[in-house]
Amino acid sequence: WKVQQPSGVREINEIHAPAGKPVVLSMTSEDVIHSLFLPALRIKQDVLPDRYTYLWFTADKPGTYMLMCAEFCGTGHSRMTGRIVIMTPADYAKWVSQAPQTAGLARQGEALFRSLGCSGCHAAGSTVHAPDLAGIFNREVKLADGRSTIADEAYLRDSILQPGKDVVAGFAPVMPSFKGLVTEGQLVPLIAYIKSLSATPEANP
Fold first, then answer.
1. Is the full-model pTM beyond 0.85?
2. Nearest Cα to Cα of residue 50 among 157, 197, 138, 182
3. Within 13 Å of residue 34, how many CA atoms lie on the same side as its CB?
4. Under the phi-then-psi rule, with left for phi > 0, alpha for psi from -120 to 50, and beta for the rest, what region is 40?
5. Whole-number Å distance between alpha carbons of 105 and 136
6. Best CA proximity match to 153, nearest among 195, 100, 105
């Protein structure tokens, strides 16, 4: 289990979270179907390849609890265990501040966005006519085939890996696919960056 906090802190087989605060886990698999099971919270959620699933919880009692995979996923299934560490908000803030310093997810995504050349088409002054990404997250998008969809995380992921799947109305299907060029670990900060863009023109990359 690889975890990355909004602050950018990375964890393996551990999830640190504050007590009394709502937490959402945005999850995907790099191989087969898994299922994240948190017995102490009595919740579990399938984790699927090539798509996102979500798990929401609010833990009230600080402590260290088991996490495991509840879906037989191969010969290493029994080793897919770890722990979830629920901390008081103050202790969680201290833990984040003492972790190795790294840029937050959105900042990491911005650097990737520019290094991959995305800003060459999606920037306000670019010569290529591409959709404006400022404020796009969770907004309705009209598609070239007459359908409409919501620009959620799954849509953003597909737009990066399968740009010809849902072409925005009024735009030519010229965006190249980044499948095989970006990893699942890079998709997370890229999407976090796009989500972070405000609707103001000056915030557009």
1. no
2. 157
3. 25
4. alpha
5. 18
6. 195
> Residue 147: is it exposed, middle or buried by C-beta count within 10 angstroms (0-12/13-18/19+)?
exposed
The tokens for 152 are: 């959620």
**42 class by beta-carbon count within 10 Å (0-12 exposed, 13-18 middle, 19+ buried):** exposed
- Least confident piece of the model among 78-82, 111-115, 155-159, 198-202: 198-202
* Residue found by looking up tokens 């915030």 in the block: 203
Cα dihedral across residues 104, 107, 112, 113: positive or negative: positive
Indicate the pLDDT class of residue 164, thresholds 50, 70 and 90.
very high
Q: What are phi and psi of 153, to 5 degrees?
A: -60, -40
Q: Which amino acid is at 109?
A: G
**Alpha-carbon gap, residue 45 to 34, rounded angstroms:** 9
Q: Is it the case that residue 198 has pLDDT exceeding 70? A: no
Close Cβ partners of 110 (under 8 Å, ≥ 6 residues apart): 193, 205
Interior/surface letters 114-139, b for 16+ CB within 10 angstroms, e for the rest: eeeebbeebbeeeeeebbebbebbee
